[in-house]
Queue: 2 jobs
Job 1
Amino acid sequence: MMASIEVSASPNSAQWQSINWKAVKQHVLKLQMRIAKATREGKHGKAKALQWILTHSKSAKLLAVKRVSQNKGSKTPGIDGIIWNSDARCIGAVNQLSRKGYHAKPLRRIYIPKKNGKLRPLGIPCMIDRAQQALHLLALEPISETAADLNSYGFRPNRSAADAIAQCFKCLCMKRSSQWVLEGDIKACFDKIGHQWLIDNIQLDKRMLKQWLGCGYVDKGLFYKTAEGTPQGGIISPTLMLLTLAGLEQLVKSIACKTGNRVNFIGYADDFVITSSSKEVLVNEIKPQLIGFLQERGLTLSDEKTHITHIDDGFDFLGFNLRKYKGKLLIKPSKSNVLSFLSNLREFIRKHPTIPVNDLIKILNPKLRG
């Protein structure tokens, strides 16, 4: 289907290079702001109409194609083997981004190693499917940003892991701060989210969402159906997960109001910490409610990674260790991260024994600063 794109290469190339990207982004941003405003005011019908306008606008289609053709995974094809590596192909792709007659292709399954030695499965969509997801993500992001928890930091624009750690510091650094911490981790979050819950609760084009959730995947030449979860590798998957977990902080705060305890929530993707001045409240009130909240969405807490610890014993979160020493909170890189970093440096030096010292220092300095 994509092979016909290269026919009139030079006019298409000139057309792509002459695009005023600043004007394109401003047009999309205006629509996104209107969607966010309508969502805040509870005008869901208006928000839905604006989403339709956005996903059918040329500006949004241009931005979607630009994103998938220039990001890190742009050189990794899906099952059709096609990549958009020229301006002509990108313009052709914009003209193909239509809802009418669209059918999502199965994902290409690949495996990448995890820290614990296991393999993480990734589902790689075709370029056209990635572009469709990026297009609809532009319409979903204003809603996800409006609905997401205040202290949720993962997969959100202009937020990072450093912001989550800074919030942890604010919640734990004082003498009167909470002493007990529940470290939460959701088991195989991407792979287990319930499809029906997503279809019923996510304000997105249902026909498109159903296709992305049920497109299946191809592994070693065999096709497999997908009955649950969102593909790790899909552009829209992180935002779907963010919306699935939206409301966790509100739930925790409502329990805090009933018990009269000071409670804080800090989340990053499927990892989160909840601080409280009472261990009993975490064990007897908050944890059971968390389990119920997640079960409704087809998710479960990981028993091996979910702990309740005292701040004097310390805990690991997002690659950092947070612990109080004689009442003073110190945040350091976690032991496992330091060891991993050192082993990577050793491996690099072993692989390049002949590299001049000056060149080696230039390569290592940015890593050490990071």
Job 2
Amino acid sequence: MSIFGSNNSFGSTASTNANAMKDIEVASPPDDSVSCLKFSPGTMAQTFLVAGSWDNNIRCWEVQQTGQTVPKAQQTHQGPILACDWSDDGTKVFTASCDKTAKMWDLNSNQAIQIAQHDAPIKTIHHIKAPNYSCVMTGSWDKTLKFWDTRQAAPIDSIQLPERCYCADVKYPMAVVGTAERGLIVYQLENRPQEFSRIESPLKFQHRCLSIFADKKTNAPTGFALGSIEGRVAIHYINPTSPKDNFTFKCHRSNGTTQGMQDIYTVNDIGFHPTHGTLATVGSDCRFSFWDKDARTKLKTSEQFDQPLTACDFNAQGNVFAYATSYDWSKGHEGFDPQKKPHIFLRPGFDDLKPSMKKS
């Protein structure tokens, strides 16, 4: 039975709680912290949203023109889901889990099959659509990057990483992987994946998230934004025209005590607007912010939510911004409040993300 034609819901709709920006709440959110959000590709007539969670489940909703959401289906792993991605045609969703496997969920048949295996939890997963091949790239805490043809059990390629994979992004023909010990490796994906360069990290603390950005004129990948646990983002061009092109900026920080001390929070996720080229960051300070990297200015910061923001994404048209609020364990067990449930919100995202008129 195709989930595209079904209307079966799961769970109950959570009551509106701590919706600081009065945005549209997604129906039947996950039961535990949200690790990833991904909208369906622009090749599809309808818009769907998937969310992976620490409750071991991946859920799918249809997002209607009104912004209202209809729960469609869910699939499960034997451990928390850490990452997800769509196939280029929108018929399949790929999931990476702490159970050391990755799965491919066929949305037409509503069946999920295992397509990858690692020796440790899989932290990242990306579908790669190249002119002469297509595959799924998985990055794991077993210090390997593997590439899978979904029709066979063994990987078609495996690359040894210097450390555990913590974050990655793909925009063909480029992939960037961030590892433990602040490693950064750029790969070119044409013909077959090959290491292109290793980059000395512009950030002094552990990498948490990264997102590749494209050239506004050619739409070719030209660099990436990297977020760390120290409330800082680096903008890094692979081939900068000037040394000044690469820079870092502080974010997700707040003035704390009267001694002028500053509270510093993790940047949990970064997303680039598909048409404006501006970006969103979400953090452990319970806020999201929108930025214009070219003008080097902040466009907007949200009100403070009652929980950290753990994941975000823009839909293909750039008119909806999805973000999740859930506990990220940044304050340990003492900071956990079982009364606070995860939420996913949808916000009109086009006008807020328009580039600044300021020049850098």
